[in-house]
């Protein structure tokens, strides 16, 4: 399984914060935003990851993450010259994906919940078609909404329905079989001039090869596209970390727990962070084994 983080877009809703930097570099409490979607892929056991962003921002991500070797990952980078739609990620990443299935996550989405890694691994195993992840919302008319039958098969997809038949919003996490590359290449641009991910998903829906997993109670899905939601995400992470004494989306710890790196490497990564609480935490968990 390959993984893609789509970290493009101009972030206009976050101006002036994003005049000079990518929104995925902005802090969510004590970590850059991109750590959160990366952590999801890692918890799913994915180690080959492609980060797609605009040409002006790719250098920043390279400075932050390098080739991923320090985390036991293989990170590659690709340009999206303009915000031409989510589905363009599969066209841009076709060579990277090669003959493998792929999980795509949007760079401004945050997921947190018990057993999320095991859930993602189970849903991605032997995937045929596509698997979407739904989250119950109180205002479904603002989202792309999926309707499922009793077996979890997707039966309809509607963008911002006036009369919603479901309250399950389609989140920014998608799992596909390898044929998604060909599907995306054959999707026509919408009236906005973009390759829409919904149009890709509708192909699988028409083939009866689309499923939606209801994340259910106990999970959190946060979008960080506005100033208020960015602040709320930081407060959410701060509250959980301080009350529970554990870190959310701590890439170094996840690499250690997943067996991507050993205790010595985890301790070394912590020591590089000086006298920060984050660094001390890494060294402590490495010493505890």
Describe this structure in words.
The structure is a single chain. The protein has eleven helices and 13 strands. It has helices at 35-43, 55-65, 88-92, 94-97, 116-124, 180-185, 197-206, 227-244, 251-257, 263-271, 277-288, and strands at residues 2-6, 27-28, 31-32, 48-53, 74-79, 102-106, 109-112, 130-136, 144-148, 154-159, 168-176, 210-214, 220-223. Strands 1, 4, 5, 6, 8, 9, 10, 11 and 12 form a nine-stranded mixed beta sheet that branches. Strands 2-3 form a two-stranded antiparallel ribbon. A two-stranded antiparallel sheet has the order 7-13. Helix 1 crosses helix 5 (116-124), helix 9 (251-257) runs antiparallel to helix 10 and helix 10 (263-271) runs antiparallel to helix 11 (277-288). It is globular and about 55 Å long. The relative contact order is 0.16.
Q: How many helical stretches?
A: 11
Regarding CATH, which class of the largest domain? Alpha Beta
Order of helices and strands: EEEHEHEHHEEHEEEEHHEEHHHH
- CATH architecture classification name of the largest domain: Alpha-Beta Complex
Report the radius of gyration as a whole number of Å.
Answer: 19 Å
So what's the oligomer here? Answer: single chain
Tell me the structural class: alpha/beta
Mean pLDDT: 93
- Give the CA-CA distance, first to last residue: 28 Å
Number of domains: 2
Uncertain stretches of 5 or more adjacent residues: none
Helix percent band:
25-40%
CATH superfamily of the largest domain: Spore Coat Polysaccharide Biosynthesis Protein SpsA, Chain A
The coarse silhouette is globular
Bin the strand percentage: 15-25%
Give the beta-strand count: 13
CATH fold field value of the largest domain: Spore Coat Polysaccharide Biosynthesis Protein SpsA, Chain A
Largest sheet: 9 strands, mixed
């Amino acid at each position: 399984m390959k993984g893609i983080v789509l970290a493009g877009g101009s972030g206009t809703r976050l101006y002036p914060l994003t005049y000079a930097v990518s929104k995925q570099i902005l802090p969510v409490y004590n970590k850059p935003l991109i750590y959160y979607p990366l952590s999801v892929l890692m918890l799913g056991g994915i180690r080959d990851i492609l980060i797609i962003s605009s040409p002006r921002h790719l250098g920043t991500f390279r400075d932050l993450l390098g080739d991923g070797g320090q985390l036991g990952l293989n990170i590659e980078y690709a340009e999206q010259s303009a915000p031409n739609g989510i589905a363009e990620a599969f066209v841009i990443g076709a060579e990277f994906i090669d003959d493998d299935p792929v999980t795509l996550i949007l760079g401004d989405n945050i997921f947190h919940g018990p057993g999320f890694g095991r859930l993602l691994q189970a849903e991605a195993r032997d995937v045929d078609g596509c698997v979407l992840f739904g989250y119950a919302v109180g205002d479904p008319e603002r989202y792309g909404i999926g309707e499922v039958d009793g077996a979890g098969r997707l039966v309809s997809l509607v963008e911002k329905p006036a009369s919603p038949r479901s309250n399950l919003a389609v989140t920014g996490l998608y799992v596909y079989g390898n044929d998604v590359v060909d599907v995306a290449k054959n999707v026509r641009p919408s009236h906005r001039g973009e390759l829409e991910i919904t149009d890709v998903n509708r192909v699988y829906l028409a083939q009866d090869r689309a499923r939606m997993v209801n994340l259910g109670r106990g999970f959190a899905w946060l979008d960080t596209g506005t100033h208020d939601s960015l602040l709320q995400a930081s407060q959410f992470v701060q509250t959980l970390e301080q009350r529970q004494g554990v870190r959310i989306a701590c890439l170094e710890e996840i690499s250690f727990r997943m067996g991507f790196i050993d205790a010595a490497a985890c301790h070394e990564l912590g020591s590089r962070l000086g006298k920060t609480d984050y660094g001390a935490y890494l060294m402590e968990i490495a010493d505890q084994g």
